[in-house]
Specification:
Blueprint (H helix, E strand, L loop, with lengths): L7 E11 L2 E7 L1 H4 L7 E4 L2 E9 L2 E6 L1 H6 L10 E6 L18 E11 L2 E7 L13 E4 L2 E8 L3 E6 L1 H6 L10 E6 L1 H13 L1
Antiparallel strand pairs: 1-2, 1-6, 2-5, 3-4, 3-6, 4-5, 7-8, 7-12, 8-11, 9-10, 9-12, 10-11
Length: 197
């Protein structure tokens, strides 16, 4: 379980083909400090397991399913990634409940910058529409955000300078694809309605 509050940006130093998947070597001094093999870490919103570590570097394996259903399949050496260690019992809950299970890919449809602030509109698969609502929570590339507006195929968020600076969202441009995780509570509400009907 995660909160969607990014701890640090990590640098993808190496992407190594492994069978049908890939191994990611990420340099992230702040997150690597105190990490252990077997830990769950959200990599741009996708929960992966630490399989090796050395000094400031963490290694993760991603299978073909993960690479095809998330934007991790598009990540290249030199890219920055949002990182968050899993929530521990007793930690403060500052964002919202995030599982690290990506529901689909969104795409930047519009970006409006106003000084150091930005409003970004994302298109998304219509199957997620029932789980995205104005003033509700959504996770974009691992970042917990509040939805400003939502329709059947797009939603918008307003980003403050801090978020733009400390996450990878600051570098987003029109056409970029992002990992989306809808609010877990919305999933259960939707499922309840489907069973009742």
């Amino acid at each position: 379980m995660f909160t969607g509050l990014v701890e640090a940006k990590g640098l993808l130093e190496r992407r190594i083909p492994e069978g049908p998947g890939a191994r990611f070597v990420i340099r992230a001094p702040d997150v690597a400090d105190g990490a252990a093999i077997g830990d769950s870490i959200a990599i741009s919103g996708c929960c992966l397991t630490v399989v090796a570590l050395e000094a400031e570097r963490l290694e993760f394996q991603a299978g073909s399913e993960t690479l095809s259903r998330t934007n991790l399949g598009e990540r290249r050496e030199g890219d920055e990634l949002n990182l968050e260690r899993s929530l521990r019992v007793g930690d403060r809950m500052g964002g919202h409940f995030v599982t690290g299970h990506v529901d689909g890919l969104g795409q930047v449809a519009q970006r409006i910058d106003d000084a150091d602030w930005s409003t970004i509109r994302f298109s998304f698969p219509s199957r997620l529409a029932a789980e995205i609502a104005g003033k509700g929570s959504i996770t974009v590339d691992g970042v917990s955000l509040t939805v400003v507006e939502a329709t059947g195929d797009w939603f918008s968020v307003a980003l403050i300078p801090h978020t733009l600076a400390v996450t990878t969202l600051g570098r987003l441009k029109v056409g970029d694809r992002v990992n989306l995780e809808t609010d877990v509570l919305a999933k259960y509400v939707r499922r309840g309605r489907e069973i009742d009907s």
